[in-house]
Records
---
Amino acid sequence: MKNLVARTVRAYLGHRCLADSTETVKLGGQVYFPPGDVAMRFFTEKHQEHLCIWKGMSHYFDVVIDGESYPELAWKYIETKHEAKQIQDLICFSSKVKVRAGWRWLGRSKLSRR
């Protein structure tokens, strides 16, 4: 069963919006975006595999914006364990990227509009 976030969710690196979606999935405190809702023109996939014993096998992405490189800023699970099937091939971001739904920040920096 997917843990869909019902409103528009955006991911920002500084003032640059890297992702904008109404179909994200939240799992284990992380928000995962469909690749069609991510600005993939900034991303270069690294084909070195990483294993998470709970979620499965992943690939990382380096991101380059305005000539500045951000290594391993995002990842996707290319092969998932049964418990994580809903996030296979979706993009997730490191804590350097701020994720928010409407005016509420999600993830590690839980700020709200006040």
---
Amino acid sequence: MSRFRTTMVANARPERPERSASPVPPSRRATTWTTARTRNPSATAGSAPATSATWMQSGICISPVRSSDMYISGGSNVYPREIEEIMLTHPALSEVAILGAPHPRWGEVGLAVCTCEPGQSVTAEELAAMLEPKLAKYKLPQRYVFLDEMPKTGYGKITKKLVREELEARGLWPEPEAVS
């Protein structure tokens, strides 16, 4: 599944706030501008500001969702932070990142990337047994990867993008048809 979430706005007013005589609060401006583009995407084609939103001819807005915040598994939203916080209660783990990995049936499933404390170890089975009573089944990571060190930004922050790139470089990132 892609890192994009599709959203359609229906029954919206097709006016643009910058053409309106009345002052419009900033929070309403984006909504109104989005609905105008959704109503008639061909009329405003090519005039999109430098944002990460992509417009399709059907009038559906595809906005990138930060993949680090959520993935969709079988139609259910899964928030990695919830899983990461539970996993970090295990004494052997020092860092955890949960990513949504492609899956042919469910769209995405959880992939847990873990690093252990020095001198400690833990198995995927132990982590799965710890998580089972605490999480719904669709939230359980389907795969566990253990790294010696998490990739980090220059500021020392773990970003899901860097983790995914590291897994791809090592050949550990699953392809949709390879995951079962």
---
Amino acid sequence: MNKPTQLECFELFEEFADEAAHALDVEASLDALLGHDVEVMRERRRSPRHPFQTTQMYAEYDGENMPPTSRFRLATFHDISSTGIAFVLPIKPTHARFILAIGTVPFRFFEAELVHVREMVANGQVSYQLGCRLVRRILPH
């Protein structure tokens, strides 16, 4: 599988709005956030994943107010599709929604909704891989 260019990744993001929305198991996501067992969820993707191993920015989102710049943090992104994205955080998330700042200035902003969380341990360090559904692109005013 060839790694897509950054432009191709942006195009994949923009295509997600044209694809049918897929089922979202919010209860499982909330259980994961609250510390309950994280079950292995069946494959829900309707579009192929592509490697997107890069560092980008994210901020937790309350669903109403765009987070200020000071709330954005770096995260290691793993892969993308036209409907979703996976990235890794060093801490367990406390929200089920995120704003992603993708690319370079001027960033392209996307709202993402948590679908699942998977705890990972490597070299004694715990991290959390998040799988998110892309909800919408946020256009500048």
